[in-house]
Records
---
Amino acid sequence: MKLKNPELLQQANYWDGLWRQSATGEFIEVANPSTRMVIGKVPRVSRAEVASAITAAEQAFISWRQQTAQKRGQILRGWSELLLQHQEDLAEIMTSEQGKPLAEAKGEVRYAASYLQWFSEEAVRNYGDIIPAQKPGQKILVQKQPIGVCACITPWNFPIAMLARKVAAALAAGCTVVAKPAELTPFSALALALLGERAGVPAGVFNVITGDSAAIGDEFTENPIVRKISFTGSTRVGKLLQQKSATNLTKLSLELGGNAPLIIFDDADLDLAVKGAIAAKFRNAGQTCVCVNRLLVQRTVYEQVMQKLDGAVAELKVGDGHQEGVKIGPLINQSAVEKFIRHFDDAMEKGAKLICGDGKSDNLFIKPVLLADAKPNMLFCREETFAPLLAAIPFDTEEEAIQLANDTPYGLAAYFYSNNVQRIMRVSDAIESGMIGVNETAISNAAAPFGGVKWSGYGREGSRYGMDEYLTIKYVLMG
Ligand code: SIN
């Protein structure tokens, strides 16, 4: 890894303001998915160390919550600027541990910085209310207070942005954080911690620990100091966290799996729709919770759309994310490849037509696949594929499209293309999803509330709603 600032690659954990090796002496090796070469190692902490990090965050909470919102905002703003200044190095670290193309990695660093910037501005707008009381001479004061120590568990697909999105809101609200990044991609989170330290985040306010998910998750859910857990990851683990959080009634935000439909109606701008479908399907090699997983195309424009897609999918260059022009990096690991093959084989067995790609893997690299004539009984309609496989299902009517779109336990993102205003109103009302892109698939941004319904979880990140997740409402009756 060629870094201008090699100290950004930290192979230690950070809590209570100190960089530490694990007391257990155990490590987790981190490999580059493009080369499968080990690029470094991070500590595998013991449960006792997790508890120590939580205690440090509890201590730090006492003064951080009393800090002025302006001061908290100032620190977050400085942190955001440092991310932008180190964009190249952070992208290099991310591409090396996660595999995504460098241009996407740089985009993710800017995306992460935008959350720190957004919440630096939101910190000072944590308004309360004064409500007319029901007895003369009384007043009802409502104030929002930080919930306390928060645990943030983040995934490997967006190693820096998902953590920045959580920690920015939490710190703006006056909470302190213990973060556990994915074992596969810990270096981006540790670099974020280093820049936080430089931006003036006080000791104990933001802590990063690495280790086994189960042990750390158990401490997060069983330690009563932790008042809130924010998790981005699979629905399976989200459900487990919900069960385990019953012990302390820990508040949860869960951003879980998706199975986004993209509907192309025959009144749409087809070129725009195809461009949107490609962008939303193949971002991060298809490893995004808001990725298009099911493409629904009205039969009257079906052939036209498939032809346009064929050309566009065939152009996508696959390879090591460091190489110029690469649009699709490797999948994260072998089990991701196996899932892709399972979905591909199942679709082919059930009668899908192969238009592009071959359904084979070369190490962790997969040529993007385009399938036509897919059907709702195929596996990819039930499970999130998380790979570069785009399969199109033809439909006839608007009612059928809505029924197909909602035929999933998930409800994170959905997209549709149409130029009929009344249809746009009807369809956006009818689709069961936390987020909808109309004639647009780039829906993720700091100003908007990101989150889902159904098995995609609950809670919102980003936007003014994002800070509420880290606040409790206290009401004071003035007699
Ligand atoms: C995700 O895949 O979990 C998040 C993607 C995004 O923020 O756009």
---
Amino acid sequence: MSWHCASRPVIGNLWLGSMLTLMALMVLASTVVNGHAPISNQKDQGKKYTGAGTTSNLRNIVIGRCYHYMSLYPDTGDKNCTDIWQELIDAVQKKDPCKISEEDYTRLSLVSAQTIPCDKTLLWSRTNDLVHRYTKATQNFITLEDTFLGFLFNGLMWCGKPLRPGMNFKSCPAWNECDKNSISSFWKMASAAFARSSCGVVNVMLNGSADGDIARKESILRTVEIPNMDPARVSEVKLWVIDDIQGEDKNSCDSKSLLELKQYIEEHNLKYSCIDNYRPVQALQCADNPDHAACNRCNYH
Ligand code: APR
């Protein structure tokens, strides 16, 4: 009797221990089978990034822009706007926003594919505002942001949440916060596709009044667009070096930074040319500064 009485707690402890082990194993198995986040990953769900969160109403904006673009440019063809939205979601949701590669966007790029007419591509570096004012005013050239894919996503933010569906509306990685993030990988993919599909003369608007290199060493122009142009289809890369009309002339076609960029372009087997203050762009600057000396017709060069 006393043996039984003395041994009951031991048997009880063994039973309790076995049950706890069994329960732990069941939780582990359920985690593996159902793909629930392990406890360490669950902490990542609340991770705060330094960039803004996913743009509110992102779905409506993207689908709305998709129909708007097709109404502006009927040549785009009949794109399935809901499919395009779904491809964006599939590229990023349930994934770590710092582990999104350009390849994750391959399907999105395929469903948004577009033919770019030869001689119409206009690339840019450090001239974001002027170049888009120019393409709006003339409609003679196409920047990435004027293409279907660029128009859909320009100025928007998005990222998913590791192992959970839906978007993170609180914060997303900023451009340089991590190497392969949902935003930088998207724009690298889109820039590469745009450069690959360009043909004939490819124009590039650069800022002659900016400090430092005419195009940053890590710029999309240098690291993605120049290497992705096909020398068999691109007859020439034509640089336009535009000074701010009120600004200094820090770089022009004969300056060191331009000659270095020339060499880089030629190393990619592409032909090069350069023009300072391309007159049609200067004419646009003159619309805002009609009395400036450079806007006197006799001073045009
Ligand atoms: N940090 C923050 N934003 C960046 C960074 C960066 N390191 N690199 C690029 N960006 C984003 C920003 O939105 C910025 O305004 O790209 C924009 C342009 O950067 P620039 O140095 O002016 O130019 P570049 O990097 O050469 O990109 C422009 O890429 O978008 C395509 O076809 C387009 O030819 C154009 C080129």
